[in-house]
Amino acid sequence: MKRTNTFAVRPLTDDDEQVLRDLLDASAALWNEINYQRLMRYNDEDGFEGDVWDADTGRLEGKYKGVLGASTAQTVRRANTEAWRSFFKNKKAYHDESNTSVTEHPEPPGFRGNKDDGRILKGVVRKDAYTVEWGDRSRLEMVVGKQLRDRHNSPKSRLRLEIVGDPNWPDYEDQGRLELWYDETDSTFRASQPVTVSDDARDTPLASETAALDIGANNLVACTTTTGEQYLYEGRELFDRFRETTREIARLQSKLEEGRYSSKRIRRLYRKRTRRRDHAQEALCRDLLERLYAEGVDTVYIGGLTDVLETHWSVRVNAKTHNFWAFKQFTERLACTAEEYGISVEVRSEAWTSQECPQCGGTDRTTRHQDTLTCPCGFEGHADLTAFARRDASCVPTRTFGSRDVRNVPETADRTGSQADGTARAVRVGRPHLVGVTTLS
């Protein structure tokens, strides 16, 4: 089972911090030089012969070995190669009409920084060129080039950094390539360590129930299970904050000099917006899957957006789901977290399901206003929760709930308490004002 430990690292002295900065800066510089050579060939620029793979990356590696070390320089080159291979794979999928996995035109790998704002401090270290020791005084040690070995205060030749915090996965069978970067948002060096965890750490489902999820923006997730439980995670407040940040980014971009497209302030806002969304996704996935595991769910069905984007009713809402909530990223995160609980995740089309009446089966006369679905036959209910109850009767029972059952719960509601009539309870997931969930029974 593949997992990742993400943690902050702290240099022990000022000299160690400068060595780390020089290491990450050289890594970014090597990446940029390799990327430039390949990008010029991809664009068929004059003076650059051959295709992307004809760039003389060996010469560039040798240029930086003194600072990075041979293994790290090689790893930077391989990381860039992987990025280009991924780009070509996505480009091929995008132009394949039978493949709908890529909906936006992919762009070639980007550069780490620019001339105006400087390079972004980011680098990689080969899996056998670093060690991590977990404990009361957790530490990271890694290889540096000969030019840096005499400039740090760590024992022997490796640079030693203090690890801040505890890992999610301290016991693992193997480790992967380490990524290091400087987070300008909070002035902290951070690291990401991919690890392989034994399958013994994976839970076994308690039963064979199923659940269906509808993913959106106003309601982040609407979930119905075969046990009769329904969960609604609200997202309007989170989306409003996303939109405010986006507007501020646009305002700052409008004030940039001609020819400039970004600034430190703009990049900081982008990172802040992304981290806020990622935190909400992680909190939601963890909370939802803990509930589903307790319910005995072993399979989760997610509504795919492919047919919806091609045929459905609201470009604005679909854009909100893709741009704000990052549908593909969320499904991947959900599947990754579900693996820990032994729960499988499948994606199925949900085209027209939120406009189909569960009472009479009609779609041409139904009306959807925001979250409410109404039909001339007399049905009225929550569109997202109803959609999955109707969409797959073999997966989810056809029991329906009226819009009054899905109520907005005050932020002050107790984590495990009930409403006055005992029909609903509410929790707040993650930090305040991130995600709210209503649970119906």
In short:
By secondary structure, this protein is of the alpha+beta class. Helix content is 36%, strand content 23%. The two termini are 34 Å apart.
Notes on the structure:
The chain is an alpha+beta fold and about 450 residues long. It folds into two domains: about 1-200, no CATH class; about 200-235 and about 270-440. About 35% of the residues lie in helices and about 25% in strands. The chain has ten helices and 20 strands. The chain has helices at about 15-40, 55-70, 70-95, 145-150, 235-255, 265-295, 305-310, 315-325, 325-340, 385-390; strands at about 1-10, 115, 120, 120-125, 130-135, 140, 160-165, 175, 180-185, 190-195, 210-215, 220-225, 230-235, 295-305, 345-350, 365-370, 370-375, 380, 425-430, 435-440. The strands form four sheets. Strands 1, 4, 5, 6, 7, 8, 9 and 10 form an eight-stranded antiparallel beta sheet that branches. Strand 12 (about 220-225) and strand 13 (about 230-235) form a beta hairpin. Helix 1 (about 15-40) runs antiparallel to helix 2 (about 55-70), helix 1 (about 15-40) crosses helix 3 and helix 2 (about 55-70) crosses helix 3. The longest helix has about 30 residues, at about 265-295. The two termini are about 35 Å apart. Residues about 305-315 and about 390-435 have low confidence and may be disordered. In the N-terminal section; belongs to the transposase 2 family. It holds the Pfam family Cas12f1-like_TNB. This is Transposable element. One of its GO terms (biological process) is transposition. Keywords: DNA recombination, DNA-binding, Transposition.
